[in-house]
């Protein structure tokens, strides 16, 4: 019998969307619980690490989004049992965390001029290197996926972040920044064309 799965997160993509796409890819039933700020404040003291997202599995709350991704990967066949292949899926996810680390100060910067300077530095320096490294990792892995020649949580995690960049929601970072990386663009297309993901995206529209 499949476990009862409830993902709780705010009504935004951020850390939640890779989990939602991975859950959709498992083909298992799961509940997409969207939590308001008020609800979060009430539940925060009792949450593990006082944070969202949480993934409830048959009544047990799993904390930390990367741990949740790996759990979903294991039950959904999206995380190889081969330790090397699993490590490459992990590496792709860790690369996204590197990007968060660089982006976060630009999100919290209050001075608009300074914020735009930081974003320009990301656009001119950090992001081309980061995207180039991801493109190279994909090429080294065979060109289609980051790990083991098949779809994994690493691909889903990277694609969610690239999709977000392509939405152009970050002032000062052009929505076209991913366009010149053909393997990454092909990966986005391939992941977002997976029938279970298409179904999920249509269901939330
Ligand atoms: N390392 C954690 C970070 C979780 C996190 O920072 N969650 C934020 C929302 S994106 C949160 O709960 N913030 C509210 C708070 O800490 O009060 C993970 O990956 O799950």
UniProtKB/TrEMBL annotation:
Gene3D superfamilies: 1.20.1050.10, Glutaredoxin
Coiled coil location: none
Superkingdom as given in the UniProt entry: Eukaryota
Residue stretches making up the GST N-terminal domain: 3-80
Molecular function via GO: glutathione transferase activity
Pfam family of the protein (one): GST_C_3
UniProt-listed GO biological process terms: glutathione metabolic process
Domain GST C-terminal intervals: 82-205
Protein name: Glutathione s-transferase 5
């Amino acid at each position: 019998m499949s476990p009862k799965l409830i993902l709780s997160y705010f009504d935004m993509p951020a850390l939640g969307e890779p989990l939602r796409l991975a859950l959709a890819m498992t083909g298992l039933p799961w509940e997409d619980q969207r939590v308001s700020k008020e609800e979060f404040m009430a539940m925060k003291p009792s949450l593990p690490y006082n944070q969202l997202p949480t993934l409830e599995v048959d009544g047990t709350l799993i904390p930390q989004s990367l741990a949740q991704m790996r759990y979903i990967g294991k039950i959904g066949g999206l995380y190889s049992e081969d330790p090397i292949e699993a490590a490459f899926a992990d590496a792709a996810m860790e690369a996204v965390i590197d990007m968060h680390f660089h982006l976060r100060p630009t999100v919290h910067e209050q001075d608009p001029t300074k914020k735009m300077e930081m974003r320009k530095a990301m656009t001119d320096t950090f992001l081309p290197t980061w995207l180039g490294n991801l493109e190279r990792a994909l090429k080294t892995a065979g060109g289609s996926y980051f790990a083991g020649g098949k779809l994994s949580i690493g691909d889903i995690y990277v694609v969610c972040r690239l999709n977000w960049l392509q939405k152009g929601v970050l002032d000062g970072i052009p929505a076209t920044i991913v366009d010149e990386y053909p393997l990454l663009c092909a990966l986005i297309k391939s992941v977002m064309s997976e029938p279970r993901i298409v179904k999920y995206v249509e269901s939330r529209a």
